[in-house]
Amino acid sequence: xxxxxxxxxLLMLGLAYFPASGFSAEFLRPALRIGFTDTxxxxxxxxxxxxxxxxxEFIEALSTYLNxxxxxxxxxxEENLLRLKSGSIDIIILPDGPMTSRSTDPIPANLPAGxxxxxxxxxxxxxxxxxxxxxxxxxxxxxxxxxxxVNPFFRHDLLEKYHSTGLKLKLTPEEQAYLTTxxxxxxxxxxxxxxxxxxxxxxxxxxxxxxxKRVESDLNIKLxxxxxxxxxxxxxxxxxxxxxxxxxxxxxxxxAKAHNADLTFPYLTLNYVSVMRxxxxxxxxxxxxxxxxxFYTHQFIERMFxxxxxxxxxxVADCMAAVNRGEADITFVKSIxxxxxxxxxxxxxxxxxxxxxxxxxxxxxxxxxxxxxLIRILNKEVTHINPRDxxxxxxxxxxxxxxxxxxxxxxxxxxxxxxxxxxxxxLLIIIGLLIFLRLRHNYTQELWQQANLVNSVGMYNIxxxxxxxxxxxxxxxxxxxxxxxxxxxxxxxxxxxxxxxYGSKLFAESVKASMQTVTRxxxxxxxxxxxxxxxxxxxxxxxxxGLTLRQAxxxxxxxxxTVVINGIPTSFTYYIGLCPxxxxxxxxxxxxxxxxxxxxxxxxxTNQTIGIFNSVMHDExxxxxxIELYMEKGLAEGEFQIHLQAKYDLxxxxxxxxxxxxxxxxxxxxxxxxxxxxxxxxxNGFVLKLDYFVLEEVCKILxxxxxxxLPVVPISVNQSGLHISERGYLSSxxxxxxxxxxxxxxxxxxxxxxxxxDFTTKKENESALQITRRLKSMGFSLSMDDFCTGYxxxxxxxxxxxxxxxxxxxxxxxxxxxxxxxxxxxxxxxxGRSLNMRVLVEGIETDAQERLLKAAGCHVGQGYLFAHxxxxxxxxxxxxxxxxx
Length: 885
Description:
Helices cover 46% and strands 22% of the residues. It is α/β, with parallel strands linked by helices. Strands 8, 11, 12, 13, 14, 15, 16, 17, 18 and 19 form a ten-stranded mixed β-sheet that branches. It has an eight-stranded mixed β-barrel with strand order 29-30-32-33-34-35-36-37, surrounded by six helices. β9 and β10 form a beta hairpin. α15 runs antiparallel to α17 and α21 packs across α22. The protein is globular and about 115 Å long.
């Protein structure tokens, strides 16, 4: 007996260590026995005895989460219920009824007695279990939930696979009455895009025209298609309300709002492919031909390529012609029109590789003043049209257009094959592309987030705040009438220093946490928006009872003062500007924000931290508006004058350079020094034009003097910090350098350390380094202006290849009165010399200052001790006089 027991134990151990794969699988995964009744769409066996259907595929996926293998038994419901009661099967598949819009349906109607149900999901059906063996129900429910969490789109994919038919068209009496009273709808379609949409013999043709016929047939109305020759004028008609509808409008709600339109559900997906030349490879930086007024140009192409690579044309046909002529290297067209565009135009040197570059959906656009019932009717029609019908329309129209190709194009495309075979291949390619590619991105949501959120912290931005401000003020109208509303702007002091010390990511997270704390503690902060650079926050506030505006601002400052950074409480100081919201006047959100910003700017550089907008600031704002009114005229009519202030070699007292300074002699405003307008121009961007003007004038006079063999010296010109983010800046500078071809380092660019570069991210650091290197490669030398006045001096020295260090006058004045400051000045000068930089100190006014700087080892000086700024003619006259000596 013991021998037999040992033999059995050995056999069991052998089976445990050396199992057959099939036996192991059977042992580890018990069977899930399933009863079903053949139901088309839910579960059935095809001619090959393979199972199909939404419920079948879902249960197969479900079984892996239940760790079961499946076994199916076919029969009627009565037979399956008997099997369930007898225990020969574990569950019964109960098909869903007609597809419904209800999001939940807890149990099927007429639930058989003695059973419980577990829903698989809307339109997938239920599983019936014996109520005496209900222990599997929670396991199945948990597995269904897990599948929904892992792949939320799985159910949708199954339904699309097995239920891709249109819904029945059911119109309400109200909707039918509307169609009866509005039998004609004025419509336009995109022109010149065969076979997508085009005109032939005065009639609309193509895919969109066929969809129009289908809509007319289903709704028993007339869509009166009005001819138009360009996309731009068609969009203008829609925007102006001249027509009722555009049949093929890009599915983008922001685009629709911009043209005063509402959208239906999308009914078509368009894929776009590239068209290039065969006779040359695509360059690394290709020139792209773009249709100016088309949505996809702005949505996709302008984001894919830099501005300097884009060339704009009226429509797609002009873009194709531009690539064929060699004016551009590439353009993008609809995949269904690409081959037709090439061969109808006889562009045999062009080709498309068929790779889809981007896609978008197409809807019908209705002018927003139309009765909303029309949108509801058309939405029903869109869901009624079978997607397969759309595919058939596309295939038919593509074939018809290609059948009209010239004999020359047919021979060129098919030298060895018959026309029928070529058309068949083309249709297969198009069908394959349509099946293979689908639109997977929600463009509307993405656009909204980009426009209204600071993505790095997930907070509303200034754009959102500007749009929301009038609505919020209207909502709190009672508080406004009482004079309790005000707009506040808050920004941390020493911003560049804080970002450099803590890092931009950590700084951004701390700002977000601080704002959450402040708004939680101060419920009277009604709305707020953060700048994209995370430098300041605008708020709409309601003045608390018993507090003045200043006291309310002090509450904000107090609650935002302590910021926890990386677990360490850190004290921040702020500048705050306030502007009360008028009680009665019309609301201009931008003006209120500008007023608050002006109040903040007024206190920068003082010992105050809170500024409130008042009448003096209002007068200054009016003065600024006057300056802005005449600035373009002043630049166009030569009112801006360039003066040069000489730079002197401290060792020889000879002129070794000059700085270009701007003056404005305005007939309307009088003579203005830079301190009256430069800060304003920095804010409104006009300083960019002024910088280019000064640079051009300096390059022009230097070029003329070189041609006339007259003496020249290096001249420095200021460059605003706005240039670093200006599109096409390097291209413009290269154009100027190529135009004058001056000797290297004859023109110096002064980059102000406190305004030109604020190191906020590694990307901006790299961008600044790339820009400075490119400028040096063009022949410009680079000067670090106002050195030692900001917080990023060492960072600029470390990161940027500067040639000249220009130390601010404040450092010199400090060194005169403090041994400590003198030591720092000497060390800074020595540091510049050790970095092979020329060191210049500005603001020298006394002989004692000159002697101090010479003793410290400074190269070059600038100031009233040597020369005042003078007009260019006077400066060069003195330079010529010195040369003759």
